[in-house]
Amino acid sequence: MNRWVALLVPFCLGGGWLSPESVRADEGHAFFEAQVRPLLVTHCYGCHGGDHAKGGLSLESRQSWQRGGDSGPVIVPGMPEESLLVRAIRHDAEASPMPPESQLAPEQIAVLVEWVRRGAPDPRDSVTKIAGMNEQEAQAWWAFQPLADHQPPARKSGGSEPDHPIDRFLLEPLEAAGLAPAAPADRRTWIRRATYDLTGLPPTPEEVETLVNDPSPDAFARVVDRLLDSPHYGERWGRHWLDVVRYADTAGENTDRPLPEMWRYRNWVFESLNRDLPMDEFTRMQLAGDLLRRDARGDAYAEGIIATGYLALARRFGHDIDQENHLMYEDVIDNLGKAFLGLTIACARCHDHKYDPVTQEDYYALYGILDSSRFSFSGCEAKGAPRDLVPLLTGADAEQWKRPWLAIREPFDRQISELEAQRPTLVADWQSQAATKRVLLAADVEEAGGITFADVPGAMLDNIPVRRGETLMLVVAPRGNHGADSTLVHLEIQEQGAGQRRWTTDDLVADFPHSSPHIGPADAPVGWHFLDLQAEPAWLNERLEGYENQPAIKIWRRGETPSVLVNTSDQPIRVWTELPARSFLVHPGPNGPVAVAWVSPIDGVISIRGNARDVHPANGLDGVAVSLEHFADPQSSSTLGRLAEESSRRDQLIRKRDADSGPEPMIPAAFAVVDAEPRDASVHIQGDPEKKGATVPRRWLGIFGGAAVPADAGSGRLQLADWIATHPLSSRVIVNRVWQGHFGRGLVRSVNDFGSRGEGPSHPELLDWLTAQFEAGGRRLKPLHRLIMLSAAYGRSSIAENALVDADPDNRLWGRFARRRLSAEELRDSLLVVAGSLDRTPGHAHPFPPPATWGYTQHNPFAAVFDDNRRSVYQMVQRQRRHPFLALFDGADPNASTGQRQVTTVPTQSLYFFNDPFFHEQAAALADSLSDLPEPAARLDRLFRISLQRSPSEAERAWAADFLAAYPGDDRDRWAACCRLLLAGNEFLHLD
Amino acid sequence: MLFPAILQQLQADEGDPLAPREPHFPAKAKRVIFLFMTGGVSHVDTFDPKPALTRDHGKELKLDHPEIKNRPGYERIFLKRPQWAFTPHGECGTEVSELFPHVGGCVDDIAVIRSMHTSHSNHYNATLAMHTGSFTQSRPSIGSWLSYGLGTVNRNLPSFVVLAPAQTYAGTQVYASDFLPGAHQGTLVVPGDSPVANLAPRVSPDRQTLELAALRSLNEQHLASRADDPTLSARMRAFQTAFGMQMAVPEAFDFAKETDETLASYGLPRGQTTGFAWQCLAARRLVERGVRFVEVIDTGSSGNWDSHGNMLDHARLAKQVDQPIAAMLKDLKRTGLLEDTLVVWTTEFGRTPFNNTADAAGREHHPWAFSSWLAGAGVKPGIVHGATDEHGLRAQEKPVHLHDFHATILHLMGFDHEKLTYRNAGRDFRLTDVHGQVVKDVLA
Fold first, then answer.
1. In this structure, is residue B240 part of a structural domain?
2. How many other β-carbons are positioned within 10 Å of the β-carbon of residue A108?
3. B66 domain-assigned
4. ipTM metric
5. What CATH number does residue B406 fall under?
6. pLDDT in tens, A24-79
7. What is the span of the domain harbouring residue B170?
8. pTM (predicted TM-score)
9. Which of B123, B124, B238 minimises the CB distance to A905?
10. What distance in Å separates residue B60's CA from the closest CA in chain A?
11. Measured at the alpha carbon of residue A768, what is the angle toward residues A135 and A736, in degrees to the nearest 5?
């Protein structure tokens, strides 16, 4: 008996008192423990256990190997030969050799093979994990729970402060820590704080006065209401949201193309907040407004489309963005996870989330929903023009929009169709003339070459009998190339016999513009037709007198080409080529010939002479073909005339119609998203779109129940919107953002991350209570602002006792108000306000060049700054080139969700206050506005009230007097400098 | 008028993102000059001699290359010979082409890496990655990472300066601090008369001195009851710094005291304030003054090394940079700065050793292989690391991905690239993402 058999023997001996199944299980597990587990631990866990799952494979539990790795299941229980694990440890050719560095000993391989053969008995139950969290922990995760019914704790203290539920929640832990909160801020500080918070602008001196002198108990509440009613409220709080959704006016791909319609979404956000749209509706609209408002009309319909600009706002990537769609979807998933749910879902693109219960399947379930939608396309270097913008009017509304334009065109269109009705008869008549056609000459004119008719072999130019009304046609056609060859022609028709009359194209030069068809002077009434032969003959009926400032050039043409033209001057003229003095030229169309036709005024015999020459030689072109055709039917000229006249009248009608109506009015469109063909996405193994794994049905996150998108529901965006909007997590996330907007930090400081890598709430009961109030109040923001702003906590001073500051340096207990620096937008807007230059009207579209002119490449990407004196939220924001001012003062990142602005202090900001021209201009304007006050004291008072919303102290008056006295220059210099100091000072830039 | 507590605040550097910090382990290199050649320099025409490419000129190839996939006219491709001769230089004998005669003269101080490779063939992505380690998303630039890791020793100058005549691919993202604190973002200096925005005083020095003092006094009154707030005092310090910058920055860019000999060595006419020679001399002066990371970009996103149409354009571009780079290396050596300054020369990718006709004048983008070099503090001088195959197609021996390159630069600066991290959006980010191996062979 060799060692292998000896080793296995103990497991073949059963105990008779157990059932056969359990005996086998026990034996198997004993075998596993004795033989298999040590091998796995020693040789496999290094890469396939613990935190390691190379190739997506963990061997740490039965469930984990049952699930398998990137290459699928690795063990087929009972079938070693079918098991990838066995092939790998044997170092079979088609499997990756495992362990990679050295093969297991033969006896070790035998153990594992035997284990698989026995059905791979494995007692190791995994702690069931959902991606990065174990299942129990995930189910119990605080942020995912329904809102708990917390009531504010009983009031213990608070002194003379009004009783406010928020304060009850906040005071309890403060008192527990033996701390007293800071005193209330003074009214001037409070209104400055409240006005910036709700509008991003400073209060006027009058507004400050009103509050300071208002003894009524609801004085504060009325200020809050007034501010909430201001249109600037939406701009301020909309900007918070634009930070989160990484709003930009460009696409961010390699050329950073403009998104000229994106502003509609921006303004929709502002307007929605101004009318206090419930937040669940706000969420639904952004994810599926097109579906919600599918059957609406007018503005309600347009609003649904515009709101999906949230999705279309996705950053675009690369040279050909269609090739990088998976990155765009990642950007959307990343953003919607953070913005609405506080979850970093995009971490699951390449592998299950490492810390949160979000699987890779979850990611691709959402991916499928997005991939079943059509995103407006920004254009890119590889595919220039934007497309798939979504019209804001449909059906009857679109008709209505176009009606005035159609009304102008309608009578013309009617006449045109009447004319067209006659056309088949005319065409048939003309075709019958072709039977009488005789080709007198046919020759090619090589590039830069020329022919003389008489030298063309086979030409029939003499003794040609003609009758009155017959037609002789000189036809010049393009050869292989595009036909743009100017050809000098000369045609001479000599009557033979008695009359000796002579007709030449030279005769036409002098009164060429007179008409087309050309009727000669009364004494020699002969008809010439200048014809477009690209289809049935049509007159060249567009007259150009002069060309490129050369009045001597006269042209008859139909569109750009074909044309017949003359140089009437005695001198050659250099235009696109040199036109000889007193010359007659023709220019064929790109796809068809041009012709000069002579109508015989006589019954007699003629001979013909002439020549043709290419006068615009160019490399690579191949000249023209010339022919001379005789229609030997006296009716031919009138048939030709009727046909050409019909064309000409049609041309004229079309021209008049287009001139009268103007171009078709563009239906306003939005950069937005609509449903496309629904399709499930496949997992991209390791995030590589080339490596497709299993297809994942479109559904909601597994941890939240994983509800499927119904079969007939289209993309599933509407369902996704509902799942998100009704989940308590999304309410908690938005309430926390509002808290941050007022207090500087959220109750959950990681505002975009409510997962296990974020910070938990400092006051979980308060967060849930506020969220419950928010939901009960219809998920509107304005009541929430009111609730928060009327708390004592919001009204506290930012200046506190040392004991409080020392005990709670980070202000986690909200015992005082957190002083904050003005944001970039607040700073710029405030400078405009104090200077009296702020344009308070809403901005609309940016002055981008029209898309037809875009030649942006990665070498020459779009780059511009379009600043005006409107509020900063309306300034154009580019993704690839940070706006210089916004970048300097920590504006939002237009490429990634900014949950909270950074606040940095760098010397380049100070340089701005020293030397920036815009800053100097605003300060000078402010100084000028003071100049009507003769008294320095009054000036100083107004300066302080405008910029700091208070009067100067005695010390400050002395300070100003000293400075003004010491500063050289004239009065204007001194006051401008003084204004700069106030505006550069810490008090102006910070909110207490 | 100054309260003692306030005075203390003003002097404190606590929480100052730019305060000097020690790296993870002692390192020779204290600062970096990062020379970036925009557009993709052809390796086989500059630092990677390929005699077999000359020998096999015109031979047809079959490759699955990103630049020719489904590209009309590129159904067949042929090897294309280098257009410049290579000769050994220095005592080490490293071969450099005649495009870089001056840099060739410095090879005894240089470690050439001939086995660089990257993962994208678009300028935008490859350029972004060479700066941030990320091919798609915005991430902090390598200069920002080092500013974050080391702070700076001269508060009158930014810690990270970018000298560039125009924006390169991916725009401001290549020197952005992204989620790192804004103090670490690169300050753009555009060669010319006013290189830094808002630097030129708009009032006379005597007026500005009065203003600064008065501003300080105003802020002190405001600070009196708010002395516990470090951001207020930090901002007061920033005004002092900015005031100093108005002098320090122009001083750094004022070459009046440079000798004729020095200017001549760079090929810079006295008084000229543009051109790569100006940028290189400015770079030397900035590191001399303690700037942590100086990036020098030679051209913008057009008119650069992207010689699709005609490789002869490489001669014009090389001529612009060769002499100034060599002069800067010698200058750093002469002044002893090369002892603790790391010089990096790189580009976003190489150029194809083939094209669709044997006599094509240009070369296409080639992410599979390119050359870069390192010189100075901590670098093993006079060596060649790695090799491409005989035709310069693939980085064959000891391939160095750009993540490895970044890991090596961080190592030379005293950082474990896996430990220089920043917590953002719930995870620890690093320059090398989840990649990167230090190239030990190039360490002295």
1. no
2. 17
3. no
4. 0.75
5. 3.40.720
6. 667 888 888 888 888 888 888 888 887 778 888 888 888 888 888 888 888 999 88
7. 4-41+88-195+253-348+360-442
8. 0.75
9. B238
10. 28
11. 95
